[in-house]
Amino acid sequence: MMAMSRLHQYANPMRFARLSKSLLPWVGALTILLLGIGLYWGLVASPADYQQKDSVRIMYIHVPAAWMTLFVYVNMAIASAVGLIWRHPLADIAAKSCAPIGAGFTLIALVTGALWGQPMWGTWWEWGDARLVSVLVMFFLYLGYMALWQAYDEPTKASRAAAILALVGVVNVPIIHFSVEWWNTLHQTASVLKIGGPSIDASMLWPLLIMALGFTAYFVVLLLWRMRAEILARRIHVLMMQKASA
Amino acid sequence: MGSSHRRWADGGYPIMKRKTQRAVLIGSGMAVLALAVGLAIYALDDSLNFFLSPSQVQAGDNIPSNTFRLGGLVEDGSLVVDGEMNVQFVVTDRVADIKVYYDQQAHGLLPDLFREGQGVIVEGTYGQNLFTASRVLAKHDENYMPPEVADALKEAGEWRGEAPE
Predict the structure, then answer these.
(1) How much is the average pLDDT of B96-120?
(2) Are the Cβ atoms of B49 and A183 closer than 8 angstroms?
(3) Which domain does A171 fall in, by range?
C-alpha cells in the first residue's frame, strides 16, 4: 500500500520534470527577447512624458511588477485551492514556488514606486494611501505564507495551513485593484485597464505591454525552476529517509 | 435510517464526495470572508480616504480639528508668491474653493509637478476659511503622453486637462 501511494504521488511530478525541462529553454529565450526589446524601447526609444520627463521610464518596471504582484498571487491561490481540494502534491509545490517570486515582484513594485514618488509627488511613502498600504499588506501576505511553510516539518500540514492563508489573502487582490477607485488616493487611477480605453499614449503603451509580457515569461521561468528544485529536494528527502531506515 | 447507513462508506460519508465537500467548504468560507471584508470596507469607507475634497471641507461635516489633508486642483491664476516665498493658491473641485497658505521657507519648496491646473494634496489645518498647509504633495493623473501629443491636443482644443476626483 505504501509503495503504491508513493508511486502515485510521484507519477505526475516526474512527468512534470520532463515537460518543464523541455519547456525551460524556450520560455527562457522568450524572456530574454521580450525583456531586451522592452527595456530598450521603454528606457531608450520611447518618448519622455510631457509632465514627468524621463521619470516616466520608472513606469516600465513599476507597472509590470505591480501587475505581477497580483497575477502571481492569483496563481498561488488557485494552486492552493487545487492542492486543498484534490490533494495534488504538484499543486502544493506550485503554490509554494509562487510565493518568493511574488514577494520579489511586490518588493520591486514598492521600491520603484517610492523612487518615482519622491521626485513626482514629493514623498517616498504615505501611510494613509489605500493603494500603497494594500500593496504592502500583499508583501506581508507573501512573507507570512513563506513563514508558514517554514513553521511545519511535515509538507502536508504546511501546505494546508499555507493554502488557507493564501486563500484568505485573495480578498486583498480586488482591494488593491479598486483602491484607487473606491477611495481618494495619492496614487493615480488605472491608465491601461480602465473603462473607455487606455489614457496612455501608444508610444508608451507598447513598450509597457512588451515589458509586461517579458515579466510574465520571466515568472514562468522562475516558477518552473523553483518547482523542479522543490521536487528534487523532496526526492532527496525521501531517499535519505529510506537510507536512514534501511 | 438504519438501511441508508449502508450506502455510506467507512468514514460515515461517501469517499468520492470528500473532494466536493472540501470544495464547498472552501467556497463557502471564501464567500463569508468576502462578505465580512466587504462590510468592513463599507463601514470604514470615509476613513480610508487619503484626502477630503474642497466641497467636503466647505460643507464642514467631519472636518478634523487637527491636521488633515485636502485634495483637488490648483485653480488657474490663483497662485500668488510673495517676496518671502510664502505661497497662496486656491484648491478647487469645481464646486467649492478653499484658499491655501503655504510657507516654503518653513516647510520646504513646492514639488516639481506643482502647477496651476494640476492635482495637489495639501496637509495642514483649516480655520477661518483658510487652509494653512505644512506639506504640499503633487498628485499626478493617469494621463501619460509625449510633449508633442500634449501640444497637439492643446492646439486642437481637445485638451481635457485634469478632471477633479
Answers:
(1) 92
(2) yes
(3) 56-245
- B40 & B65 share domain: no
Residues above pLDDT 70, as percent of chain B? 85
- Report percent pLDDT > 90 for chain B: 55
In a domain, A42, yes or no: no
Cα of A167 to nearest chain B Cα, Å: 7
Q: What is the total count of domains within chain A? A: 1
**What phi and psi values does residue A222 have, to the nearest 5 degrees?**
-65, -40
- Asked if B143 and B159 count as a contact pair (C-beta separation under 8 A), the reply is no
Q: Per the structure, how many domains does chain B have?
A: 2
Contact A127, A133 (CB under 8 A): yes
**Chain A contact set for B114 (CB, 8 A):** 122
Range of the structural domain that residue B35 is part of: 10-48
- CB of B135 within 8 A of CB of B107? yes
Split chain A (246 residues) into runs of 10 and give each run's mean pLDDT: 49 83 97 98 95 93 98 98 92 97 98 96 95 98 97 92 97 96 93 87 96 98 97 92 90
Judged by CB atoms closer than 8 Å, whether chains meet at A121 and B137 is answered as yes
Residue B41 CB coordination number (10 Å): 18
State the residue for C-alpha cell 498561488: A76
CA distance B27 to chain A (A): 10
Q: Quick check: A36 and A210 in contact, CB under 8 A? A: no
Pairing of strands B86-92, B130-139: unpaired
H or E segment to which residue A116 belongs: helix A89-120
Task: Please tell me what DSSP assigns to residue B65.
Answer: S
Kindly report the number of other CB atoms within 10 A of residue A242's CB atom: 9
C-alpha–C-alpha distance, residues B149 and A49, integer Å: 10
Of B113, B136, B151, which is closest to A51 when you measure between CB atoms?
A: B113
Residue B150 contacts A, CB cutoff 8 Å:
yes
The mean pLDDT value for B133-161 works out to 86
Does residue A31 sit within a domain?
A: no
Chain A residues whose CB is inside 8 A of the B67 CB are: none
ipTM, two decimals, is: 0.83
- List strand residue ranges (DSSP E) for chain B, in order: 68-74, 80-81, 86-92, 97-103, 119-127, 130-139
